[in-house]
Design a protein that fits this description.
Elements (H helix, E strand, L loop, with lengths): L4 H14 L2 H10 L6 H5 L6 H13 L3 E3 L8 E3 L2 H37 L6
Antiparallel strand pairs: 1-2
């Protein structure tokens, strides 16, 4: 994989935004559709300015966008940074899958040897 500083910086911003459980909960809510700040704040015991700070972090990371409909400022999920995270994690999934395949082959080899030589234990 080629190192791309700009891509890495976007990933860093995305991971930083996802590091907080409140922000993850806000994203989970936005999967259902757009919502305003009051709607997003409803399940939390925090002030609207505190929720707004979380929204700014999510917006900076590109995970949400904010529109303007009259006086209503709906927040909307922007999923492309999450795809970048999934793509980044994919290389590690392939690594672990290959490792598990090698372990499985090794264990099957041990089982075969035990069946061929039952009197030999270790």
């Amino acid at each position: 994989m080629v190192y791309n500083k700009a891509h890495s910086d976007r990933l860093s911003a995305t991971f930083a935004a996802l590091a907080d459980p409140t922000r993850r909960a806000i994203l989970a809510r936005l999967v259902e559709g757009p919502a305003n700040v009051k709607e997003l704040a409803a399940p939390f015991r925090m002030s609207l300015p505190a929720i707004s700070k979380h929204l700014k972090v999510l917006e900076h990371a590109g995970l949400i966008s904010r529109g303007r409909e009259a006086q209503w400022r709906p927040c909307k999920l922007e999923a492309s940074p999450l795809k970048d995270v999934a793509d980044w994690a994919e290389q590690y999934r392939r690594f672990f899958e290959a490792s598990f395949d090698r372990l499985d082959a090794y264990l099957k080899g041990l089982q075969t040897k035990q069946k061929e030589n039952p009197e030999k234990e270790k």
